Amino acid sequence: MTRPILEADRLTKRYGSHVALDDVSFTIGEGVTGLLGENGAGKSTSIKAFLGLVRPTSGAARVLGEEAHTSLAVRSRLGYMPEHDCLPSQVSAAEFLTHMAELSGLPPSVARTRAADTLRHTGLFEERYRAIGGYSTGMKQRVKLAQALVHDPAFVFLDEPTAGLDPVGREEMLTLVRKTYREFGISVLISSHLMADVERCCDRILVMRGGRVEHAGEVGQFTRETEAVFIEVDANRERLVTALERRGVRVVPDAGGLVIEGPDESVYDHVRDALVEAEAPLRRMAPRRHVLTELFEREEAA
Amino acid sequence: MSEARTGVAGTTGTVFDIGYQRYTGVREGRGRSRLALYRNGLRIALGLGRGPRAKALPFFFIGVLSAIGLVMAIVAGAANRLAGPGAAERANLPSHVDYYGIASIILFVFAAVVAPELLCRDRREGTINLYLVRPLTGTDYVATRWAAFLTVLTAAAWLPQVVLWLGLSMGDPAPLAYIRDHWLDVPRFLLAGLAMAAYTTTVALLTASFTTRRAYASVFLVGLFVITTPFTAGLAEELDGAAGQWLSMFNLTNIPLHVNDVLFGQTSELTEDAPARTLSAAVRVGWFFAWTLIPAAALWGRYRRLSP
Prior knowledge:
Shape of chain B: globular
Largest interface: A-B, 40 and 37 residues
CATH topology of the largest domain in chain A: Rossmann fold
Shape of chain A: globular
Helix content of chain B: over 70%
Order of helices and strands of chain A: EEEHEEEHHHEHEHEEHEHEEHEH
CATH architecture of the largest domain in chain A: 3-Layer(aba) Sandwich
Oligomer: heterodimer
Structural class of chain A: alpha/beta
Distance between the termini of chain B: 39 Å
Radius of gyration of chain A: 23 Å
Number of strands of chain B: 2
Radius of gyration of chain B: 24 Å
CATH superfamily of the largest domain in chain A: P-loop containing nucleotide triphosphate hydrolases
């Protein structure tokens, strides 16, 4: 873990009798961090606390070493991409980004240059003089990301960055998010409901529930290999199950494939023979990994 | 770093993609943010950087207001040229004291149509959520929007008066004598125009702050100014004494015009029949401040604690 950029120190936020954040302490450093949790878990309140938009009931939310709710200046080093619509329909992306850069304190000439550069990096350079109202959903998401980056923040908050995108648009957005840290050097906090997005993008995750931090750590720690083997075939899956069961191998269907729990070495011979017998073309056989969804499934079961 | 080479008619150009560049220059802070928001407000009010339809309305109103000033200047100037110095005054032709009364309804409709654009769209489209995570507060936002529209409306109010002043000065057979005798009209119409713009801006923006739909705010404001004026004026004439005077004070169109009358020391064509004209100058000016400062405080109250 590198030096912390965000620091919650016994942070509590109450709205009347409702406790949105309950004495939470954590730090977030450089890299891409995923903030996971159900609705009402405290994700949005945490982000608002770090953006200085809510005053903590007790404790502190610090950004780059400064108290977020007392320092307006620190906001010029932060970027925020909201989940919901926030773009003016009548102006061009170039004009809008220039304006947003100036709002973060950049001189006008620099703001213009950075707006053009940022639009190039987010793949909107050719369309920069068109009114935003005519953009597709994917392009609008890119403009939302671009406005969060245009003033070169030290840290950027992305709230559901892939919301409403088709698979291609989602893939492009996730690539941009990864680029934001790896190529631009801007650290990211992604708040998302989509575990797959977080697994693919993030180095660390923070799982919140009921205003508290439930889990925190490296993504790899939660998605490590299990004792099970995952098998995926292109056809004849049912015949393969029958063939494996006839050989005394217990299989469990999972996510379009088959899982064999805790196999010993002899199982691999059985799998080979069963594949031949069932005439099932093998696509993939690999150690099964945990997925982040299991964190929530385990808690719900408990 | 990637590199691309192109050759055109024997020349070779090289384009380098130098990748993402960090910004290490100066960040000018909250002052720059406020200035940017103020300039953006001016551009919205005038439709600059937007399509032709966005420009049409503001420039139409500014054109009509200026045309009124120009016509008044031409008529008064011609009278002075043809019938000698002071002929326009003797013929009681409309002048600086009357202009805001004549143009007030156009100024109000201008504000009703354009001012909501500064607030309603930001809330409806959610752009305000992006402003409030910048180094700005809700107070900065609403104050700069108010200042931007005040600037536009003040300019729209002053421009025809300046045209009229130039027309009357140039139209007079003795321009220097006219300027010497009437120089006080300039600070008077500047102050009266500022009062007119401040009141109109505040009431229009307060109304706009209650809705995300520009059309609702515009229709409400036009109704407020256009419909209540004949109603209060007619009813006030029916009532005698203090009741009539105070009912007349609720004629929303006349509130800034009373300040105009106090500044010029005479009543304009629009207020010469209003029972409120006989109230003291302090009451009329105080009434104007109450109708400007209380809506301003309400407007500030609606935005100061705003967060996304």
